[in-house]
Design brief:
Layout: E1 6-11, E2 20-24, H1 25-36, H2 42-48, H3 53-66, E3 87-93, H4 98-108, E4 114-119, E5 126-130, H5 135-146, E6 152-159
Helix pairs in contact: 2-3
Length: about 170
């Protein structure tokens, strides 16, 4: 019987309640296949990783339960959706106390044009990836929403000229 080698334990994100979950070589194969094609049926996935249907289904459910798989969705082309203007916005906070940061981050989640937001280690404090139809739409978003977020001292932005690497699967 095949016994997959157990690789080092990984700590999953806070969505997984801080649990530690061991990924073995077979789990990694399952994850790699799903990253390549998230529309695989369990039957197709089982065949690709050379595992029976029931054990594959059990592993898949456990990967979902553990937080290793956080969901599945279609990856859309922003330009096709009419969102051809893609600025990166750097945010420097006036103050970084817990309440201000929480209010800023909470307000940020309510702005659908912000498609990715990351808190950084130094100055600037945040990096936002934003999509908009055009420059006037971005200017309205910048003036009416982003500049009025709690605790913002300064915003600066630059434009994405071309995507070089995007939506890359994790190296398993």
């Amino acid at each position: 019987m095949f016994r997959p080698k157990v690789l080092p334990k990984i700590r999953l994100d806070p969505g997984a309640c801080g649990r530690t979950f061991s990924l073995d070589a077979l789990d990694r194969k399952i994850l790699a296949e799903l990253q390549a094609d998230g529309r695989l049926t369990v039957t197709e996935l089982a065949a690709r990783v050379r595992l029976g249907l029931s054990p594959c289904h059990r592993r898949l459910r456990e990967l979902e339960r553990s937080g290793a798989i956080r969901g599945d969705r279609a990856i859309l082309d922003a330009a096709t959706a009419g969102l051809t203007f893609e600025p990166l916005v750097f945010v420097t906070m006036r103050q970084e106390d817990r309440d201000t940061v929480a209010a800023f981050e909470s307000a940020l989640t309510g702005i659908p044009e912000v498609v990715r937001a990351e808190r950084l280690c130094d100055d600037p404090d945040y990096l936002l990836r934003v999509v908009a139809a055009d420059l006037p739409a971005f200017q309205r978003l910048y003036d009416d929403r982003l500049a009025t977020l709690p605790g913002v001292q300064r915003l600066s932005s630059t434009l994405v000229m071309r995507h070089v690497v995007e939506e890359r699967p994790l190296p398993l």
